[in-house]
Specification:
This protein is mainly α. The protein has a two-stranded antiparallel sheet. About 70% of the residues lie in helices and about 0% in strands. The longest helix has 28 residues. Helix 1 packs across helix 4.
């Protein structure tokens, strides 16, 4: 189905169109940036984005759904009128926004390259991960280069907001690295409080979605209060996104997710539904803790998923995702009182919390 899912709701159809528009606008900028990398790193990066096979020949793979670039562009449209007079629910890509959107996508993909190494994931987007093909050193170094490319795109951008955008993106990267570090540390701890896990997820996932929205606001010429409100909107939506992602990590269809069934359980990750179950004070939570104390073998993955559900982890995650989306809308209304002008942002937020992969 390409980079978007078949959704029948009007919001889903709008989100699909926004994602496709963002992908078309940003991909050429991304390709230009990656072409500037030295040969070996360029090859790893082009493979990771799905544009080349491991041998360097062209591929027609997917570069991802472009959620973060789409948020940059949708935020910019929500806070200013385009030259063609169209509002935040329609129109093309706002002029001058593509570099900011591409920078966010490069930052996101640098984290994916590193995450795959850290988590020892062997598949992404239905194909072998870069580190399994090119080795850990090349994958990590290419991720480092992508982070630098993201900053260079903004540093070389003549837009008056590029300096503030660069500083915000740099701060965001530090925050999401702290979130990733906490996520790794949780795997070595027997007990993780739920509030601490929520803070980790906000840093690891919410920060970059918030940054994407904030960059769109900055490039639209918004004031400080509006920028912060858009950042808060993205953070809340990002936490909802992570909750859904964690649910997919347990119950997602491998044919859609591109990862083995129960991948997060196999890795004994302290994801949000798991931590909710472990801290539930239920017999099922104790059963899950016992399973997590040893390697997942045989039928253990199915038993662990069942324990998470019986302990209330699945229901809690679904309900909390909905609650966070409500909070996101409240934050958005601070910057865009007429939510009709923010239709693109709302459609994208709805998309990420109702996806199946």
């Amino acid at each position: 189905m390409g980079t978007t899912e078949a959704i029948t709701t009007s919001e889903g159809q709008e989100a699909a169109a926004l994602l496709e528009r963002a992908r078309r606008a940003v991909d050429p900028e991304l390709r230009r940036a990656l072409e500037g990398l030295p040969g070996p790193m360029r090859r790893v990066a082009m493979y990771h984005f799905g544009w080349e096979h491991a041998d360097g020949t062209p591929a027609a793979g997917s570069a991802g759904k472009a959620i973060r670039p789409a948020l940059v562009l949708a935020a910019a449209r929500a806070l200013r009128r385009d030259g063609d007079g169209q509002d935040g629910r329609a129109g093309g890509v706002p002029e001058g926004m593509v570099r900011a959107a591409a920078a966010v996508e490069l930052a996101h993909n640098f984290t994916l390259l590193h995450d795959d190494v850290i988590d020892e994931d062997v598949t992404r987007r239905g194909r072998a991960t870069a580190w399994t093909v090119f080795g850990v050193p090349d994958a990590v170094i290419t991720g480092d280069a992508m982070a630098a490319l993201a900053q260079r795109l903004l540093a070389q951008d003549p837009h008056p907001a590029s300096g503030a955008a660069s500083a915000r993106l740099a701060s965001c990267v530090i925050e999401l690295c702290a979130g990733q570090q906490a996520d790794c540390a949780f795997e070595q701890r027997a007990h993780v409080p739920l509030d601490e896990c929520l803070d980790m997820a906000t840093a690891k996932t919410g920060a970059l979605l918030g940054c994407a929205c904030a960059l769109g606001a900055l490039y639209a010429g918004a004031g400080p209060d509006e920028v912060e409100a858009l950042d808060a909107f993205g953070r809340e939506a990002g936490l909802a996104f992570q909750l859904i992602d964690d649910l997919l990590g347990i119950w997602g269809d491998p044919g859609h997710t591109g990862k083995p069934a129960g991948a997060d359980l196999i890795a004994r990750k302290k994801s949000l539904p798991v931590v909710a179950a472990l801290t539930s004070g239920t017999a099922a939570g104790e059963e899950l803790a016992a399973l997590y104390a040893g390697p997942m073998i045989g039928d253990d993955v199915r038993r662990a998923a069942d324990a998470v559900e019986r302990a209330g982890g699945r229901d809690w995650a679904q309900a909390h995702a909905a609650d966070r989306m409500g909070r996101a809308v409240q934050q958005l209304s601070r910057a865009v009182p007429d939510l009709g002008a923010a239709g693109g942002l709302l459609a994208l937020a709805e998309f990420v919390t109702r996806r199946t992969r």
